[in-house]
Design goal:
- 3' to 5' exoribonuclease required for proper 3' end maturation of MRP RNA and of the U5L snRNA.
- Helices cover 31% and strands 16% of the residues.
- By secondary structure, the protein is α/β, with parallel strands linked by helices.
- Strands 11, 12, 13, 14, 15 and 17 form a six-stranded mixed beta sheet that branches.
- A hairpin with a 2-residue loop joins β11 and β12.
- The longest helix is centred in the N-terminal third of the chain and has 18 residues.
Length: 404
């Protein structure tokens, strides 16, 4: 069996990794039997097994219900000879698996750009959905926040200590956990994956396993973001109709949270059109290198935000006719200071609850691709997000040639 066959990490795990891993192996063997006469490869089956297992894991409220649901799946995969549309889990059809079955021995159904554009436009999110998910939309320009306290003071994004924003460059002690806590259904408590500490621990490390000498903050309202720089609207930029996947890396500065790297990839060719480390406007507090992958910004050679904006907001890159693809794209557009209304966001498309799936897990679940094993890479993330959308509409991630 290939190295791709491993359970997807979830915020709420119904069962431990080893037990899920063993059950996943059994499911893979059942799929091999069910699809023995198809043209699908073991890699195809590994991907399908991973998607089916994580679907059951997400919809099981306990370890016991997970084991029961998986036993039903293991039985019915053979019973119905691989026809997943006939399988029910908890009395409900096995939703979420059917769109991916085209990878088992079937050719791509979309081979022209016009067909692809038609499918992509169907995924564009409504403006109300965008606003609900934290996007800054043009209508917010007339809404102001008169609460001065939210402008002068902010909670540290890491340790929650309230501090005066103008004191951000003064040294202090910030103790925090770099990774978000995860709820364990078996032990009924939260655990920090960065160090293994739990929220009910009596150790002082429960307060944080890492320290830094500055507090940091992140403005999220339109007013706060405009204090760094004004927003630009793509409605003012004429240009070619294109589809672009993008991802930003961010850092903490004296002004808040700013873009320090931007990657833009063309959907149809897979070519990288823009990839630059960018100088932030404020003074650097923390490059967040463990996550951003950026360790240094050359003030001599790296473009400023304004210089980068003049390049990426243009007729040949991001313009009013562009369809932009991203994962949690509101974060990227906010630090880019852009209003744009043609958006495909995989974090919204693939999230069924208030908890949004991470790109790392989504890439593994949909593409069987491991990303973000160490530092983040905006190029890798932009490509992964683009490929997830390709699979969503029935296109192979490797397709970059199109019929007329």
């Amino acid at each position: 069996m290939g190295s791709l066959l491993r359970p997807v990490d979830l915020v709420n795990q119904p069962l431990g990794f080893q037990e899920r891993y063993k059950i996943l192996q059994k499911l893979f063997k059942q799929l091999q039997k069910a699809y023995a006469h198809t043209k699908g490869t073991n890699i195809d089956l590994e991907r399908l097994a991973t998607r089916l297992e994580v679907h059951v894991a997400k919809n099981s409220l306990s370890g016991q219900s997970y084991k029961f649901n998986m036993s039903i799946l293991l039985r019915d995969v053979l019973k119905y000879k691989g026809d997943l549309s006939k399988i029910k889990i908890n009395g409900r059809p096995l939703k979420g698996a059917k769109p991916h079955l085209s990878s088992i021995g079937n050719a791509n159904s979309i081979t022209t750009k016009s067909k692809a554009m038609e499918a992509l436009k169907a995924l564009i999110l409504d403006s109300k959905v965008l606003e609900k998910n934290g996007y800054i939309v043009k209508e917010m320009r007339n809404k102001t926040n008169d609460d001065n306290s939210t402008q002068l003071y902010a909670p540290c994004l890491r340790c929650s200590t309230h501090f005066k924003k103008t004191d951000i460059m003064e040294k202090t002690l910030c103790r925090y956990h770099p990774l978000k806590r995860i709820y364990n259904r078996d032990t009924k408590n939260h655990q920090y994956p960065c160090c293994g500490e739990t929220t009910d621990s009596v150790s002082f490390l429960r307060l944080g396993c890492k320290t830094f000498f500055h507090h940091v903050f992140r403005g999220e309202s339109y007013d706060e973001l405009c204090k760094i720089s004004k927003f630009s609207s793509t409605d003012d930029i004429d240009g070619v109709e294109n589809v672009l996947s993008l991802d930003c890396e961010m850092a903490f500065t004296s002004l808040g949270y700013e873009m320090i790297r931007l990657t833009i990839v063309d959907f149809f060719t897979g070519k990288t059109l823009f990839d630059h480390v960018i100088q932030p406007i404020g003074d650097i507090v923390d490059l967040n290198s463990d996550f951003s992958g950026v360790h240094e910004i050359d003030r001599t050679n790296c473009p400023t935000y304004k210089e980068a904006l003049d390049v990426f907001l243009s007729e040949n890159l991001i313009n009013k006719n562009s369809i932009l693809i991203g994962h949690g794209l509101e974060n990227d557009l906010n630090v880019m200071r852009l209003f744009h209304n043609k958006v495909i966001d995989t974090a919204i498309l693939y999230s069924k609850t208030k908890f949004k799936v991470s790109l790392k897990n989504l890439a593994f679940e949909v593409l069987s691709r491991k990303i973000q094993n160490g530092e983040h890479d905006s190029s890798q993330d932009a490509i992964a997000t683009m490929d997830v959308v390709k699979v969503k509409i029935g296109i192979s991630p490797s397709q970059n040639k199109w019929e007329k």
